[in-house]
Design goal:
The complex is a heterotrimer of chains A (about 260), B (about 350) and C (about 270).
Chain A: H1 2-26, E1 39-46, H2 53-63, E2 67-74, H3 76-84, E3 91-93, H4 97-105, E4 109-119, E5 121-126, E6 146-149, H5 154-166, E7 174-176, H6 179-187, E8 193-197, H7 198-204, E9 208-212, E10 221-228, H8 234-245, H9 247-255
Parallel strand pairs in A: 1-2, 1-3, 6-7, 6-8
Antiparallel strand pairs in A: 3-10, 4-10, 5-8, 5-9
Chain B: E1 3-11, E2 14-22, E3 27-31, H1 38-46, E4 53-58, E5 61-65, E6 70-71, E7 79-82, H2 94-104, H3 109-122, H4 138-150, E8 156-160, H5 168-184, E9 188-193, H6 196-202, E10 205-210, E11 213-218, H7 220-225, H8 230-236, E12 239-252, E13 257-272, E14 278-280, E15 290-302, E16 305-312, E17 316-321, H9 322-327, E18 335-340, E19 345-349
Parallel strand pairs in B: 3-9, 3-10, 7-8, 8-9
Antiparallel strand pairs in B: 1-2, 1-4, 4-5, 5-6, 10-11, 12-13, 13-19, 14-18, 15-16, 15-18, 16-17
Helix pairs in contact in B: 2-3, 2-4, 3-4, 4-5
Chain C: H1 13-36, H2 42-47, H3 49-82, H4 88-95, H5 97-100, H6 103-114, H7 121-128, H8 136-161, H9 165-172, H10 177-188, H11 190-206, H12 209-214, H13 225-235, H14 237-264
Helix pairs in contact in C: 3-8, 3-11, 8-11, 9-10, 11-14, 13-14
The chains are: A alpha/beta (about 260), B alpha+beta (about 350), C mainly alpha (about 270).
């Protein structure tokens, strides 16, 4: 699957590269900033950014005719693996510091990664909160059906930290393989509560209600972004990172449920 | 326990509409070409195919009565059936195959096996009981199939082309054995075949079926002497005469002798095809060793030939061309001489 | 005893080349697992309690799913192959739906029927206080849902290939349809049933999507080997490779063992 993504991206780059140069020749209008970014920009971004980044990409394309922004959304660890295997990406936006560290340790990042957003856990309950969940302590109630993320995936590791900080021994019925799977079970009403990211609760709409938990501050997930050292299009990459960190970008992230620095 | 059946079955373009009566101990052969509806009839009698109309009764029991809404399913009919390719169950030993019908009807295993072994001995394959059917020859398998059909003492025995899958030599011996077993069987037997020799050798009466209808019925001799259609004439012209072989001579049970080409011994059938019988108005000179005086009883034209029924020491049927018939000035009652080459006479063990 | 046909030695080239490619395609990824396996850490990886637990659960649930598939699927295959009822082709198409359905969707679909809020599950929950999701029962149900079509299709094919006239013969010997099914039809198609059961078991053993969706993932109750492999992959790819190898070795060994037993006793 990750190989496919790499291949697909490479193909897109090839095609875009050919088309890009032809367009450049034909559409060299004098009013354009000759130094502005153009060609193809490839952004590798954590799956939780799926609802925010495409909008930002379109805004960048609107500002810079001749620029084509492509996204590869996947789990941060999968993306880090792809990048270390030589995938031709310009920007890497990770859902945590550890996967960004994989890339920076390999010397593949240009400059220091910058934190552009953070995500915190929230209790998700089905609409109407049938089990009357009010806080983390309810996760210890045996009679409730509770879903946590598996400790192997980021949301599960964060959940462990939060529960430890709260001194709660949860009685989960299932350790989900990712945050979306946990959320699905809430949406279907098959579990009474799940500990997931705030952004996921926001994205789920009316089917799910979010309950803030103070202990979540113990495990705030920072999202770092970096331009990659081997970026084929460093100019556009820099422009994208700038947009993400701009007021406009930060507002979009906040709307999606992220916390911004 | 005689069988009475009158049924109609609609099979697409073909409507099978047949009536039969078979007495106790009687063997009825249903003879006809492929696709005539013979197998359909057999499936109806077996209860595997419900008829569209009509009745089937065996003795006092009604098995099918469409107007009255009666249909006894196959497994509740006390019958035995032998299939063309024996259909012994490949996963069971020969003994268990024969015991199968007894077991399904509630007999305990040891008793059923004992009865099966007894029947295997009767059909001459006692030593093969432990084998799987896949390791039997065609003749052995057909004997086992017969034992399987008869072991339950059925009221009705159905034989579906029981000999046609066998090679010529095996067919002769199995046919002779089958004849013996049929003679001992007290119930009614319906034999479906497309081979006139089977019909002549095994049946007391023959029903000829074409396109779903009975075109002729009678004793084998009757049918071969008075064929009512070209098909019947071609099919059953054969005269089949019982006798006892002694060297190259057969002494017929009805009197008279027939010289044959092969040496034989014991009870046999002599078969003479009508086209190999020559007719003369005076005793022929020369080679033929089989010359008999006879009287022309009847003449039935079919196609370009005339079938002549002869009465005399040796009852025969002769086909002569219409021209020869006229030249010889034949008419019923005319005395004639009939001759047949010894090499044209076929002999079957019986 | 006709003429003895001598077979040409060897395999024709147009068959040989694709066949070799197919073998390479199927075997190389497995070889990759073997080559990449951290043999040094094998011992420590295997002694973890989670591995034994997941393996035992996988074997038990796959076997239970195969048993359930046999009990329900063989009769269904018989209906598809032998009954003359209308709508059989529609039924067959419906039965094969789980083959094309992404297993995760299958898991969600199972929720909609058997979940706490499901059509049947709601009643089970309220009337009988029985909750299926997140239990080992749910694992077996999810695996059966995904694997049973393999069994049904194999057995239906075997039933169609078997000569139905044996069943006629049994009927003339006094066997009703149920007796005929037990004593004639079943033994005749036993090799097909065995092949279908093996396919079904293998599919159940590897089942991931429907299981993790409908049964969730909890060590000891619902975490089967594929789930353990997937989660290990998130953190420790070496551990994932070891777990995959364990699953591979156990399943291949089981199949070989069964094959020896069944094929040496095969009918005919």
């Amino acid at each position: 699957m990750s190989r496919c993504a790499v291949l697909g991206t490479a193909l897109v780059l090839l095609l875009a590269g050919c088309g890009g140069s032809a367009d450049g020749d034909a559409a060299a209008t004098p009013s354009d900033d000759p130094a502005g970014p153009s060609g193809t920009l490839t952004v590798f971004a954590a799956a939780s950014l799926t609802d925010v980044f495409p909008d930002l990409g379109e805004r960048l394309e609107a500002d810079h005719p001749g620029l084509d922004v492509q996204f590869n959304f996947a789990g941060s660890s999968a993306l880090a693996t792809q990048i270390t295997q030589g995938a031709p990406a310009d920007v890497f936006a990770s859902a945590n510091g550890s996967q960004m560290a994989v890339v920076t340790d390999a010397g593949l990042a240009a400059g220091e990664p910058r934190v552009f957003a953070a995500n915190v856990l929230q209790l998700a309950v089905p609409a109407g909160n049938p089990a009357g969940v009010t806080g983390l302590a309810d996760l210890a109630r045996e009679e409730l059906a509770v879903a946590l993320c598996a400790p192997q995936v980021p949301c599960g590791a964060a959940a462990e930290d939060v529960l430890a900080a709260a001194g709660v021994t949860a009685a989960p019925d299932t350790f989900e393989e990712d945050v979306r799977a946990a959320l699905t079970k809430v949406e279907l009403g098959e579990v009474d509560a799940a500990l997931v990211y705030r952004t996921d609760v926001t994205a789920a709409g009316d089917a799910v209600e979010g309950i803030d938990v103070p202990e979540a501050e113990q495990a705030v997930n920072d999202y770092p972004v970096a331009v990659l050292a081997d970026a084929p299009n460093p100019e556009a990459a820099a422009a994208f990172v700038e947009l993400v960190r701009s007021e406009e970008g930060q507002q979009a992230l906040e709307d999606a449920g992220f916390r911004v620095p | 326990m005689s069988l009475t059946a009158g049924v109609r079955v609609d099979r697409g373009p073909l409507t099978v509409e047949l009536g039969l009566e078979v007495a106790d101990g009687e063997v009825l052969a249903v003879l006809g070409p492929n696709g005539a509806g013979k197998s359909t009839l057999l499936r109806v009698l077996a209860g595997l195919l419900p008829p569209d109309d009509g009745r089937v009764a065996v003795g006092p029991d009604t098995w099918d009565d469409v107007p009255a809404g009666v249909h006894v399913p196959a497994h509740e009919r006390p019958l035995g059936m032998v299939f063309q390719d024996h259909l012994l169950f490949p996963h069971l030993s020969v003994t268990d195959n024969v015991a199968f019908g007894l077991r399904t009807r509630g007999m305990r295993k040891p008793a059923a096996r004992a009865a099966a072994r007894e029947w295997l001995a009767r059909v001459g394959i006692a030593e093969l009981g432990d084998r799987r059917p896949g390791r039997l020859s065609g003749g052995q398998a057909q004997r086992a199939a017969l034992a399987r059909a008869l072991v339950g003492q059925p009221a009705l025995l159905l034989l579906d082309e029981p000999l046609s899958a066998l090679d010529a030599r095996t067919r002769l011996t199995v046919r002779a054995e089958l004849r013996r077993h049929l003679a001992d069987f007290p119930g009614s037997t319906v034999l479906v075949t497309h081979d006139p020799v089977d019909a002549m050798a095994l049946a007391d009466r023959v029903v000829v079926v074409e396109e779903g209808r009975v075109v002729q019925a009678g004793t084998p001799a009757d049918v071969s002497r008075h064929p009512r259609t070209d098909y019947v004439a071609r099919l059953v012209g054969l005269a089949l005469l019982p006798g006892v072989g002694e060297g190259t001579t057969v002494h017929l049970d009805g009197g008279g002798r027939v010289a044959v080409a092969e040496e034989t011994a014991g009870p046999v059938f002599v078969a003479v095809r009508p086209e190999s019988v020559a007719l003369w108005t005076s005793r022929p000179e020369g080679s033929p060793r089989n010359v008999w005086p006879a009287r022309l009883v009847s003449a039935t034209p079919h196609g370009s030939t005339v079938r002549c029924e002869l009465d005399g020491e040796v009852p025969l049927v002769a086909d002569v061309t219409a021209t020869a018939f006229a030249e010889l000035g034949l008419a019923p009652g005319t005395p004639v001489w009939a001759s047949v080459k010894a090499s044209d006479v076929a002999v079957y063990a019986r | 005893m006709g003429t003895v046909r001598r077979r040409e030695p060897g395999v024709p080239l147009p068959l040989l080349v694709p066949a070799v490619l197919a073998v390479a395609f199927l075997v190389l990824p497995l070889a990759g697992l073997v080559v990449r396996a951290p043999w040094g850490e094998l011992g420590s990886q295997l002694t973890g309690p989670a591995v034994g637990q997941a393996l035992r659960l996988s074997l038990v649930s796959a076997t239970a799913a195969t048993g359930l598939s046999l009990v329900l699927g063989v009769p269904l295959a018989w209906v598809l192959a032998r009954s003359r009822a209308r709508g059989r082709s529609v039924l067959r198409a419906l039965v094969t739906v789980p083959l094309v359905l992404p297993p995760v969707v299958g898991g969600v679909a199972l929720f909609l029927v058997l979940g706490r809020q499901g059509i049947v599950g709601r009643w089970l929950d309220q009337a009988l206080d029985v909750t299926i999701p997140f239990t080992t029962t749910a694992v077996v149900i999810a695996e059966t849902f995904v694997a049973m079509p393999f069994l049904v299709i194999s057995v239906e094919g075997a039933l169609r290939a078997a000569d139905a006239r044996f069943e006629d013969a049994a009927a003339t010997l006094g066997a009703d349809r149920w007796t005929t099914f037990r004593r004639v039809t079943l033994p005749l198609v036993a090799p097909g049933i065995a092949a279908g059961a093996v396919l079904c078991w293998a599919r159940a053993l590897g089942e991931f999507g429907a299981t993790i969706t409908f049964a969730g993932n909890f060590p000891g109750t619902t975490q089967t080997m594929p789930l353990a492999v997937y989660l290990a992959l998130q953190q420790d790819p070496d551990a994932a490779i070891v777990l995959s190898l364990v699953l591979l070795v156990v399943s291949v060994a089981t199949l070989l063992l069964l094959r020896d037993r069944w094929l040496t006793r095969a009918v005919r």
